[in-house]
Design a protein that fits this description.
Layout lengths: L2 H9 L6 H13 L4 H14 L3 H12 L15 E5 L8 H9 L5 E4 L10 H5 L11 H11 L1 E4 L7 H11 L7 H14 L4 E8 L8 H17 L3 E8 L7 E2 L1 H12 L5 H18 L5 H13 L2 H12 L18 E6 L4 E6 L1 H11 L15 E4 L6 E2 L4 E7 L2 H14 E4 L9 E6 L1
Parallel strand pairs: 1-4, 2-3, 4-5
Antiparallel strand pairs: 5-13, 6-9, 7-11, 8-10, 8-12, 9-11
Helix pairs in contact: 1-3, 2-4, 4-9, 5-12, 5-14, 9-10, 12-13, 15-16
């Protein structure tokens, strides 16, 4: 086989065989197939798509590119969750300790930011000392000792996905359903969790902009998981406006800590409760979602989730004092308050545009290997449905320079729409698909 023939076959819209997919993925993992051919292949997949069989084969080829973990040595059931990417989505930082506070281990392999979507690892690395690079043995020990482990992919676990993940970010091939599904499920299967909740984002700030596409992605991922004996639930959640108030790495960590203290934004708290309830149901700790909701809320009320967060962060080398002292986090030197340019109801906040302007500020990457500025970003004072008067605070921009803040302000105001009539708050969850 030759890589160029496989690229050409997919370019022409033909289905690749299991052997061809495995040849290409293993060759790319070993370095026999260079980045430029992998980029061409990824673009062909984006443009021509893959059928369900190809997508499952791709996921399993990436799983077989490295080792797989068996979490049975930790607990009868270990749960995981994954978001398909959004703006302001710091859910893992709250949900993982909520679930672990109830005695249910959470083991998660996370990624970095993709395009306008923030990455969990980038957020966690804004906590001084936090180590995302664990060996397999350290990964096992961390979840067994702390109840939670969130780390990056090692060279041994789904290494093909690690390489493709970074490549997709800088080759405009992120929004491909087969590539997203196989990427997510290869990590989930390789990391060994027996049950997982998939948070599939829908809207302007998501890679799946329509409910139809999001549902299709969810169904493919559920199918892949069930074929290898995993329990999978998919939550179809809204991403037309940022989740919560904060967008940017340290700013989102701060909001997660505030949420664990019981002071989080209402939409973010509700989203975390929904995800945690489904994780508890899959793990067998809650017979119904309603029971799971009550249990999850209880961990915020009694402080047990916050205690687990401290233990988790310290267990991975991070400065756990951040849970009580947010000044430990890096601060941007400039804060600029953006005010409402008119009176009325805030009718829309374009989440995609907010994500893109946060990348321009430095909170994300434009090229593979770019550094991330953990301190910059935005914190909203109002969300869709709010009634504001001219001059009321709309958002605070955290930036390095006045020039960067001014550019961000122009983009931010252009991303907001207004109405003279009452505007209903958008839904948080469209549907929950239980496999």
């Amino acid at each position: 086989m030759r890589a160029v023939d496989i690229i050409a076959k997919k370019r022409d819209g033909l289905a690749l065989s299991s052997a061809e997919i495995d040849f290409f993925i293993q060759g790319y993992t070993r370095g026999d197939i260079p980045d430029y051919q992998a980029a061409a292949w990824a673009m062909a997949v984006l443009l021509k798509g893959m059928n369900n069989r190809e997508t499952t084969d791709l996921a399993m080829a990436m799983v077989h590119s490295g080792q797989t973990l068996n979490m049975d040595r930790v607990a009868p059931v270990v749960v995981d969750k994954h978001s398909t990417g959004g703006v302001g989505d710091k859910t893992t930082l709250v949900v993982a300790p909520m679930v672990a506070a109830l005695g249910q281990p959470v083991a998660k392999m996370s990624g970095r930011g993709l395009g306008f979507s923030g990455g969990t690892l980038d957020k966690l690395e804004s906590i001084p000392g936090y180590n995302v690079s664990l060996t397999i043995d350290e990964f096992f020990k961390a979840v067994a000792r702390n109840g939670v482990v969130v780390a990056g992919q090692t060279a041994d676990l789904a290494p093909a996905d690690g390489k493709l993940y970074a490549l997709r970010d800088v080759t405009a091939t992120v929004p491909s359903l087969p590539l997203i599904a196989s990427s997510i499920m290869s990590k989930k299967i390789a990391s060994g969790a027996q049950a997982m909740v998939l948070d599939v984002k829908v809207g302007r700030g998501a890679f799946m902009t329509t409910l139809k596409d999001a549902r299709a992605l969810a169904e493919i991922m559920i199918s892949i998981g069930e074929q290898v004996g995993r329990r999978v639930t998919a939550v179809l959640s809204s991403m037309d406006q940022p989740l919560g108030n904060a967008v940017g790495n340290t700013l989102e960590v701060a909001e997660a800590v505030e949420t664990l203290h019981g002071c989080g934004p209402a939409d973010f708290v509700e989203h975390c409760v929904v995800i945690a309830a489904e994780m508890l149901r899959l793990a067998g700790l809650a017979e119904t979602p309603e029971t799971g909701r009550a249990l999850a809320k209880g961990t915020l009320a009694d402080g047990s989730a916050l205690a687990v967060f401290k233990k988790w962060v310290a267990g991975q080398g991070g400065d756990a004092r951040v849970a009580d002292d947010l000044s430990i986090l890096e601060q941007a030197p400039l804060r600029q308050v953006v005010t409402a340019p008119q009176s009325g109801y805030l009718a829309g906040i374009d989440a995609r545009e907010v994500g893109l302007l946060s990348v321009e500020l430095g909170a994300g990457r434009e090229r593979k290997g770019d550094p991330v500025d953990h301190a910059v970003g935005l914190v909203f004072a109002a969300k869709v449905g709010a009634q504001l008067e001219t001059g009321d605070a709309l958002c605070t921009i955290h930036a390095r320079t006045q020039e960067a803040a001014d550019r961000a302000q122009v983009r931010l105001l252009a991303a907001c729409t207004w109405s003279e009539e009452l505007v209903a708050e958008p839904p948080l969850v469209y549907d929950i698909l239980r496999g």
